[in-house]
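>> Question from a student workshop board

For tomorrow's exercise we were told to take the sequence and the ligand below, predict the bound structure, and bring the output to class. My setup keeps failing. Could a helper post the expected result so I can at least see what it should look like? The ligand is tryptophanyl-5'AMP.
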Amino acid sequence: MENQTLQQNTPEKRKRVFSAIKPTGNPTLGNYLGAMKYWGKMHEEFDCFFAVADLHAITVAIEPKELRENCKRLFALLVAVGIDPERNVLFMQSHVPAHAELSWLLNNYTMFGEASRMTQFKDKSKKAPENVNVGLFDYPVLMAADILLYQADIVPVGEDQMQHVELCRTIATRFNNRYSPTFAMPEGRVPKFGARIHSLSDPTAKMGKSDGENDGSIFILDKPEDIMRKFKRAVTDSGREVKAADDKPGITNLLTIYAAACGVTLEQAENEFASSSYADFKLRVGEAAIEALRPVRERYEALRRDDGALSALMRSGAEKAGRIASRTLEKVYKKIGFVRL
Ligand code: TYM
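>> Workshop helper replied:
Here is what the output should look like for this input. Compare the format with yours to find the bug.
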């Protein structure tokens, strides 16, 4: 009965969105411009589910204290970037046990060869050969469970996660064909601007959450003076023209950051800096990043002053997510043939 009521209350036309972010390292300007900034606006058009993917965080070694702090910080940051918990379902992945359960079930509909081909698995295995654990291998299946539990139509992600969304579609198709239509077919969506923000010190590498030491990453919670220092040191290219080009990865990255931070196109950004020197240009990009991040940091600081309030938000998010997730999970158990109580 409860299920029926819930279904009737779900507006038919609004599409579902699901996305998540891992609480590893320190969230960067790349995460913000490539993902979080858009998430905060999506509820106007879609029914949105956003999670802190804490279960995904333990595939690489992490200290308990660090994991705990990262989770609280990221949850508060998501609220601070504009994901209003009243208008979105915002929750911690591990607070909804259905994620781990569905992930086990989906393992049996995922081929070893398919998971072996994942670029991220290969990269991370190379980076930490001493800890190539089964969780790291299984990571995209858990991600598929995240998406499919909510019958998501749209999955906003940066380019680096598209391959995982494709695998999710493969798994969903296999399951739907083997039994009967069960999962909605999700579509990965990469933002037009900022889909791939690169490191400031090595513009051929992604701006990563764990690359703090070398000033290559701007963190969302960095102080303005640190942000400016990093931009001033940003690697540029030969030549003097501020123009996006394949042989100018440094300048292209800075233009991308500027365009995403100010909400203009790459071309508009190029025009603005047509007569600027590299040094002036870097300063202006730094200022744009500082201004984009300032309100986020201020809201974040206010939220972190009250741990109890943060826990209450987590609890209510988990309850809302859990209700929807358990509906899908129950369907899946039944279709496979489990005896249910
Ligand atoms: P994660 O935590 O690495 O990153 C979160 C989101 O930020 C995007 N992103 C970037 N975009 C542009 N430039 C960058 N330098 C940059 N770095 C990161 C990522 O593409 C991602 O969209 N496995 C996922 C989390 C996850 C998930 C899911 C995502 C778990 N379950 C289900 C979608 C659906 C991850 O590690 O993202």
